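= Tokenised fold =
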Amino acid sequence: MLRLHPTDNVLVAVDAVDKGATTPENMVARERIMKGHKMAATAIAAGAPILKVGQIIGFASKDIAAGDWVHEHNVGVHDFARDYAFARDAHPEDILPVEQRATFQGYRRANGKVGTRNYIGIMTSVNCSATVAGFIAQELNASGILKDYPNIDGVVALKQDNGCVIDYRGAIFDILKRTSWGYATNPNMGGVLMVGLGCEGFQIPRFKEAYGIVEGNTFRTMTIQETGGTRKTVAAGVAAVKEMLAHVNDVKRVACPASDLVVALQCGGSDGYSGITANPALGAAVDILVKNGGTGILSETPEIYGAEHLLTRRAATPEVGEKLIEIIHWWEDYTKRNLMEMNNNPSPGNKLGGLTTILEKSLGAAAKGGTTTLRHVYRYAEPVTGKGFVFMDTPGYDPVSATGQVAGGANLICFTTGRGSAYGNKPVPSIKLATNSDTYRRMVDDMDINCGDLLDGVAMADKATEIFSRMLAVASGTRSKSEVLGYGDNEFVPWQVGATM
């Protein structure tokens, strides 16, 4: 059993604890406690707060005896006051001089950004063109032509299931526009072909006008209706991409400082170990990244709910902290309007792994952000222009969240998982960190790093260094496990906020 903070009234089981077993603190388990789950360290009266890591994760819904299993059958959630203490703990970071920063081998783009991969994307303006985009990518990848262009990682069809009956003045259009432009200009994208139907609400000409886009050697557009139907559009699309190949291939990896890394921080399939091992280890690696001048993007707003006060205290200014709280209030209203509640998260798998409430899950999820000052707060898919530790408003659903981060400019993803999430991304490589050794061994073909050995005595600082070193290696071209498996063709999922008409 682990006591994570002196004030905690629960312990966390590292291994399964049988009924009647005595803990190192001479407590007797009154029932079986599964791995990652909690046991009462003292009697807890009904209505009293449940404390883990020194923070409230819920309230006893009935009297709990010392040694009882503490989970959703005896824990509930209700509103309680939190001291946001805006910017109270903000402090300047000690950033290394450029000449002392770690380096990786990346693709330096003309605009100064750096890619870690070099893809060609077949993007769609509407679901009606998704099949054609898939046909184009499939034909090019199957033809074997890419073997003559070794600097191109592949052709990926980024299909989306909206784009038709949407108001160009509304939220759906706004978010889809930002997301599409963000992917088209992500530094991991060497070339883009955008395919539409022609009559959809998300008009390609309006999109091009909004961003001042001029077609050229690495950006082309076409619509199925104007080109003459499915077969002709596939043929024209294949021809257009073939004309891009030499231009997209004309890049070389060069030494780049770690300050050019923009790392999306994700967690999925979380368990009771997430907030103890992988998430704080990733946070410690993010601290190293920030020290090297890089950027870490924490997201998944519903999964920092209840821990937001720990972030507002680290905000660079009161305004940054207040912007985060405004977003929290929007989510409270959003879920209420849709007859939901913020505590609908955790998922059944999270609960089976030991997480009881969203407050508990959020404490672990927020740990991915490390300990440095929160510099900026961004809207979904908004370009991330600042350095250091930042936050982007996204849903907790991993593919939608990561899509926003990649649209914001992330060129690398670090993804922690306890239950064992199956996820990868194109054009951005995803590094998977297992929270426990059982999941790592069981899903070794999917997991890049085992953080479960922290429970066996590996030092947190050593694990953080291992994670940061893997960031540099994958950014330099070493393929992650999800890349080897071929993930990434189905993970482009823009957020749909407004009404579907």
About this structure: Residues 230-249 form the longest helix (20 residues). The two ends are 53 Å apart (CA to CA). The chain is about 30% helix and 20% strand. The chain has three domains: 1-80, 119-250, 256-485.
